[in-house]
C-alpha cells in the first residue's frame, strides 16, 4: 500500500480551513449587515432623517446606483446631510454587533456548519450592486448607501433584503444552556 506524503495533504487541509473561515466570515458579515440595516431602518431617528432628506437626493442616489454611475458623490452628499450623532450611532451599532458576533463566534462555529447559512451568501451574491456586497465588512458610506436603497424601496434591493429577513428566520438557533 502506497501512502501519500504529508506535504501534499497539508496544503489541502490549510486551503479547506481557509475556505471555511472565508465562508464563516461572509455568513457573519451578512448576518451583521442585515441586522444593522434592519435596526437602523426601524430606528425612528434614522427613519425621520431619511424621510426629510430631499427627494432629489434620494432619487439621484438610487438612479446612480441602478445605472452603475458614480454613486460616490451621491453617498457623500447623503453622508454630509446625515447628522453627526446619527452617523456615530450607526457606527456604534455596527461595532456592537460585530463585537457580539466576534464574542460568540466560538459558540456559533458548530451552528455555522449548517448549510442553510450558505443560502444567505447566495442571496447576496446573485444580485449585482455597485456597492460592496453585504458579505463584506461594510464601511459607513456603504451602509448609508444600502439604507438609502432600503428607504427608497429600491426594486432590486428591497426584495433581496426581504428575502434575507426570511432566510434569517429559517436559521438554526443556539440552544439555551441552563
Query: Count of DSSP helices?
Result: 9
Mean pLDDT over the residues? 77
Structure classification: mainly alpha
Report Rg. 19 Å
Strand residues, percent: under 5%
Bin the helical content: over 70%
What gross morphology would you assign? Answer: globular
- Secondary-structure element series: HHHHHHHHH
Instruction: Characterize the biggest β-sheet.
Output: none
Number of strands: 0
Query: Which spans have pLDDT < 50 for at least 5 consecutive residues?
Result: none
Q: End-to-end span in angstroms?
A: 50 Å
When the domains are counted, the total is 1
Structure keywords:
about 180 residues, about 0% strand, mainly alpha
Structural features, described:
With 178 residues, the chain is an all-alpha fold. It has one domain (16-164). It is 74% helix and 0% strand. It has nine helices and no strands. The chain has helices at residues 6-42, 44-52, 55-67, 72-81, 84-103, 105-112, 118-126, 140-151, 157-170. Helix 1 packs antiparallel against helix 5 (84-103), helix 1 packs across helix 8 (140-151) and helix 7 runs antiparallel to helix 9. It is globular, with a radius of gyration of 19 Å. The model has no long low-confidence stretch (mean pLDDT 77).
Amino acid at each position: 500500500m502506497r501512502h501519500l506524503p504529508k506535504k501534499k495533504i497539508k496544503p489541502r487541509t490549510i486551503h479547506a480551513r481557509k475556505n471555511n473561515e472565508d465562508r464563516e466570515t461572509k455568513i457573519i458579515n451578512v448576518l451583521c449587515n442585515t441586522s444593522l440595516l434592519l435596526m437602523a431602518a426601524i430606528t425612528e431617528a434614522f427613519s425621520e432623517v431619511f424621510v426629510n432628506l430631499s427627494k432629489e437626493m434620494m432619487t439621484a442616489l438610487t438612479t446612480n446606483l441602478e445605472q452603475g454611475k458614480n454613486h460616490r458623490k451621491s453617498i457623500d452628499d447623503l453622508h454630509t446631510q446625515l447628522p453627526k450623532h446619527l452617523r456615530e450611532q450607526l457606527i456604534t451599532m455596527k461595532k456592537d454587533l460585530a463585537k457580539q458576533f466576534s464574542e460568540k463566534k466560538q459558540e456559533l462555529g458548530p451552528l455555522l456548519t449548517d448549510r442553510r447559512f450558505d443560502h444567505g451568501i447566495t442571496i447576496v451574491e446573485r444580485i449585482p450592486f455597485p456597492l460592496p456586497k453585504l458579505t463584506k465588512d461594510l464601511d459607513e458610506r456603504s451602509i448609508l448607501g444600502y439604507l438609502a436603497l432600503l428607504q427608497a424601496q429600491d426594486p432590486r434591493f428591497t426584495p433581496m433584503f426581504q428575502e434575507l429577513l426570511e432566510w434569517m428566520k429559517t436559521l438554526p438557533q443556539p440552544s439555551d444552556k441552563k
